[in-house]
Amino acid sequence: SHKVIFDTDPGVDDAMALYFALAHPEIDIVGITTTFGNVTVPQATANALYLTRIAGYEIPVAEGGALPLMKAPGKPPGFIHGDDGLGNLPSRVAVSGQAEAASAAEFIVNMARQFPGEITIVAVGPFINLGLALKLEPQLPKLIKQVILMAGTVVEPGNVSPVAEANVWNDPHSADLVFTAGWNLTMVGLDVTHRVVMQSAYFAQLAQHHQYHQQHLALTTLQHAVNFYSDFHLKARPELGHACYGHDILAFVYLVAPELFQTQDGRVRVQLEGMGNGQTMMDRLGGTLSYAEPGWEARRPETRVCLQVDTAQCLALIE
Ligand code: BDR
Ligand code: CA
Asked: What does the alpha-carbon distance between residue 193 and residue 250 come to, in Å, rounded to a whole number?
C-alpha cells in the first residue's frame, strides 16, 4: 500500500479527498499536514482533526505555514467552502486530539528520513509546507517516493484569474520551488479536475454504498459540506447543474489509478508577478526552443502533467 502524507487546506473537496483515501484499501495516510488556503491554518488544523476523529481515525496532524512564502496573504474564500471550510456546519461534536509538536515542514522531513524512498506526498493546498520542507532539507526530493499535486492548469482557464489555479496563485513562490526541486512529481490540475463533475444525485448514490450507516456523522458532515459547495457551483457555473468539481480527490485517483490519465512530461515554472501571477507555464516543446529565456534551461527537472482523464472510469472508481 501507499504510505501517504496528505498536505491539505480542508476545504470541501479536501474533505472528499480525505474520505476517499481513508476508504481506499491501498492508501495508508501516515500523517496530515495543514495549510492556509480555503481557510486559515488554525481552522484547517481543526478541520483535519475533526474529519479524521469523527470517522474513527487517530492520524497525526501537523500544523503548517500560516502565510505564503513571499506574496501578501489573501482572504479565505468563505463563499466557496463556507467560513469554517466545511460549508458552515450548524454544530460540531467535541473531538479529542491535538496537533503534533512538530510543524508540518518538520513532520515531512522527519518522516522522509525515517522512511527513505517510501513516502508519497499528496498535496492539495497552497504549497508552503513543501517549500519550507525543501529549505529545511534540500535532499528531500531524493528521500520522497513521489509527489502528487492538485495544482495549476495548462490549457484549461484558471479559476482565480484567466490563467491561475487557486493553490498555485495563493503561494506562487512555494509552487515554483516545488516544480523545480527535482522529485518524482505529478501535476493534477484543472485540465483534468474540470472534467470530473460530481452531480448531487451521484453523491446521494455514493452515500448508499458507503461503509458507514446513513446517519454516521462523517457521512452527514461530508454531505452538508458538499451541498454547500454545489450551491456555490450552481451560482458560479450554472451549466454544471447542482454539482461540484472533484479537484483534490483526483490527486488520490492518480495515485491508485494513473492509467486513467494521459500525461506529458515537461518543465513547469510559475509566473511570480503581475497580471499572470500564479500561472503554471509548461514547456510542451521538450526544450527545443533555441532562444529560451533563463529559467528554461534544458536540463531542469520535468513534471508529469495530467492533460486528460477518463471521466467515466474515474467516477466509477470513486463510487
Ligand atoms: C483547489 O483550490 C481549492 O479551493 C480546492 O480545495 C482545490 O485544492 C482548486 O483550485
Ligand atoms: Ca484544497
From this structure: 7
Ligand 1 contact, 122 CB (< 6 A)? no
Distance in angstroms (rounded) separating the CA atoms of residues 48 and 10: 7
Ligand 1 centroid to Cα of residue 37, in Å, is 8
Verify whether residue 247 is a known catalytic residue.
yes
Q: Locate cell 474520505: which residue?
A: 19
DSSP 8-state class, residue 141? H
Sequential DSSP letters for 75-115: ---HHHH-TTSSS--S----------SS-HHHHHHHHHHHS
**pLDDT tens digit sequence for 241-266:** 999 999 999 999 999 999 999 999 99
CB 159 within 8 A of CB 190: yes
State which amino acid sits at residue 59. I
CA distance 165 to 175: 11
In terms of Cα–Cα distance, which of 20, 27, 21, 32 is closest to 3? Answer: 27
Cα–Cα distance measured from residue 280 to residue 276, given in angstroms and rounded to the nearest whole number: 9
Model confidence, pTM: 0.97
Rounded to an integer, what distance in angstroms lies between the CA atom of residue 78 and that of residue 86?
A: 10
Sign of the alpha-carbon dihedral angle for 13, 135, 108, 258:
positive
Calculate the CA 208 to chain-centre distance.
26
pLDDT (tens digit, 9 = 90+) per residue, 42-69?
A: 999 999 999 999 999 999 999 999 999 9
248 lines ligand 1 (CB under 6 A): yes
Measured between its terminal Cα atoms, the distance across the chain in Å is 20
How many angstroms is it from 38 CA to the middle of ligand 2? 7
The β-bridge partners of 316 are none
Q: Is it the case that residue 210 has pLDDT exceeding 90?
A: no
What value does the mean pLDDT take over residues 130-149? 98
Supply the DSSP symbol for 293: P
Query: What are the residues whose beta carbons fall under 8 Å from the beta carbon of 294, sequence distance 6 or more?
Result: none
> Percent of the chain having pLDDT more than 90?
91
pLDDT 10s digits, 70-80? 999 989 999 99
